[in-house]
Amino acid sequence: MAEEKFPDIPEPPEPPEPLESRSLLADRSNLRIALWWIAGLVSLVTIIILMTSQCGIERLNLPGPTTADPADLPAADQDTELELRKDQLWYKLGEDKPFSGAAVSRHPNGKMKSRTKIKEGAAYGLIEQWDANGSLLGPRFKDEFEP
Prior knowledge:
The chain folds into two domains: 24-55; 70-144, no CATH class. The protein is 18% helix and 25% strand. The protein has one helix at 28-54; strands at 75-77, 82-84, 90-92, 101-106, 112-119, 122-130, 136-140. The strands form two sheets. Strands 1-4-5-6-7 form a five-stranded mixed beta sheet, with no helix packed on it. A two-stranded antiparallel sheet has the order 2-3. The radius of gyration is 38 Å and the shape is rod-shaped.
């Protein structure tokens, strides 16, 4: 029998260079990653700045709060003094300028039935409604009333 010899042991590889002695950006793959991170951060900051500069309540074109309480607005009887015309705006009878103020409707006993804030002919905000006894039924949006 021929003697079988074990293979020679391979030489160990050179140890890697210590991290302290090499620059992280010296390797091209690390440079690409760093540039992608920088570009992403710059893009994110730009988007945030643009979004916040374009947002604001003044861009919603809402009627401004000129008077906090609808009772302080000039009132008109919705049933006898106001009319809803074809342009879907409220006008005082005989006037060409759209009405601004509070449209008030009353029960037959004289107690308030509803109060709607109107600006330049268009109703906005909540409509307050009361029953015939004068108890507040609650504020509702115009589409929430029963026919």
